[in-house]
DNA sequence: GTGGTCTAGACCACA
DNA sequence: GTGGTCTAGACCACA
């Protein structure tokens, strides 16, 4: 599965965060299903060309968010929850709400926000987008 | 005007960024108008309970974003630009679009996003919101 | 003569430097001739809406450059030198040479420089220009 | 590469600006190429006999000018832009134009300017030159 | 007084 | 180790 993941080592976005996002995405897409095993920290790090501490950190945070779980001596797996995808999507929605609240507090009109949403969903976003993703 | 600003010194969000946001907000709200003077670096720092260098950094970044300008020996002022508020609002909209794009990429539906926007504008937001506000 | 001088109090360019430039310009234009009296520091400062120290500093530097001279108890006058204008022009040429040298060291071609000079002399400069002027 | 850089700690030109110029020059000369790593902030500061904050400031300004970029935990690198050198050269040309404009406003003739340019390019410059070099 | 630069050094997140 | 933030405080030019 590591072949499905490409990190941008030049980005300012922390690598461990990129990794978290990528794994979440794979869950969302159904590429990773509850119970599936994740690569071992060390070999994964080697394959990604990244520091083991970095993979470790990504795994730890994902575990804290109940998206994956580890069994000492056996490995790391995708959580057995049928609401995993919903849970991840809800995180994204919360982020949107935070951004909208800030905009609202800056007197941006609801109409302007709605049209911005329309633009994104009609694919007219020239923004690189990337940034943030979960936490 | 310094009494209008409250910083969260414990937040992991950099103090100078919080300060930038607060000042931007005051401009947006019309509390600060083009030509208005900002507090002197040192006295402002004292009032905020912060190091002068931190205020300095906030001022310098706002200056290179053309939101304020400084003149040695005289002081710091809000830029004389009639498009200041629009400019700041557009920054907020861009943030929203980034967040929406990420949500979209996580298969969040447009309907869900729109309803999230509705929630925020009807005042039902329990999100801490606060964070971010400028580049 | 103070009515001929307009300072930009908002500019980042130091006021005393602006004042020096303006006086030099007036000499160059023949508005001020050798032997002419300059306004007294205090009244001049008042007229310009500027701190007396600032006018003082401009006068001191101009005196150091032999462009003006002061007689204690009498006042300040334009130097009685017939080469004053040439001298001022030569200062400007030196500045150009410094800038050209830096450009040359950055591998800018002579052709590019010449064409830049042409542009300025044909009036196609969209640069605000202003900055620097003597010292 | 740090051995290629000599700062004048006594100059009134800010150290961080000198450093910015020197780095820009090295890029211009091809000594530093896109993707190349710059010395770490702290070790560079030690080698230059300067405070880390000063190097930091130079790096951060070069970063916002898109000349270099930093990644926390990894290091600082020359930007991957093929137009970097052109961009820097254009900055120098702008400086020349500003100086020429001022000279022109002081009634310096075009002929005089051209001959000054000739002098510089034929190596007859006794001007200290050094100073300035970036934004 | 006002902004700008700089040192000395601590602490943090990330790799 | 690497960059980013912050404090404490000095010194400078300018007004």
Can you give a write-up of this model?
The structure is a homotetramer of 135-residue chains. The first copy, chain A, is mainly alpha-helical and 135 residues long. The first copy, chain A, folds into 2 domains: 77 residues, Winged helix-like DNA-binding domain superfamily/Winged helix DNA-binding domain (Arc Repressor Mutant, subunit A), CATH 1.10.10; 38 residues. Chain A is built from 5 helices and 3 strands, in the order H-E-H-H-E-E-H-H. Chain A has a 3-stranded antiparallel β-sheet. In chain A, strand 2 and strand 3 form a beta hairpin. In chain A, helix 1 packs across helix 3 and helix 2 crosses helix 3. Chain A is elongated, with a radius of gyration of 17 Å. Chains in contact: A-B, A-D, B-C, C-D. Chain B binds a DNA duplex (15 and 15 nucleotides) through helix 2 and helix 3.
Element-level helix/strand string of chain A: HEHHEEHH
Number of helices of chain A: 5
Helix content of chain A: 40-55%
Write the CATH homologous superfamily of the largest domain in chain A: Winged helix-like DNA-binding domain superfamily/Winged helix DNA-binding domain
Count of distinct strands of chain A: 3
Based on CA inertia axes, which overall geometry of chain A fits? elongated
Rg of chain A, Å, rounded: 17 Å
Strand order of the largest sheet of chain A: 1-3-2
Mean pLDDT of chain A: 87
In CATH terms, what is the architecture of the largest domain in chain A?
Answer: Orthogonal Bundle
| CATH topological fold name of the largest domain in chain A | Arc Repressor Mutant, subunit A
CATH class assignment of the largest domain in chain A:
Mainly Alpha
């Amino acid at each position: 599965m590591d072949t499905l993941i490409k990190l941008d080592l030049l980005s300012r976005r922390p690598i461990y965060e990129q990794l978290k996002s990528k794994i979440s995405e794979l869950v969302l897409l159904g590429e990773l299903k509850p119970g599936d095993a994740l690569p071992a920290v060390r070999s994964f790090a080697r394959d990604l060309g990244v520091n083991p501490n970095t993979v470790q950190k990504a795994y730890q945070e994902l575990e804290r968010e109940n998206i994956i779980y580890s069994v000492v001596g056996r490995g790391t797996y995708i959580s057995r929850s049928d609401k995993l995808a919903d849970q991840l999507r809800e995180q994204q929605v919360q982020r949107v709400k935070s951004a909208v609240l800030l905009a609202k507090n800056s007197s941006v009109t609801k109409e302007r926000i709605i049209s911005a949403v329309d633009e994104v969903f009609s694919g007219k976003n020239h923004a690189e987008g990337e940034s943030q993703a979960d936490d």
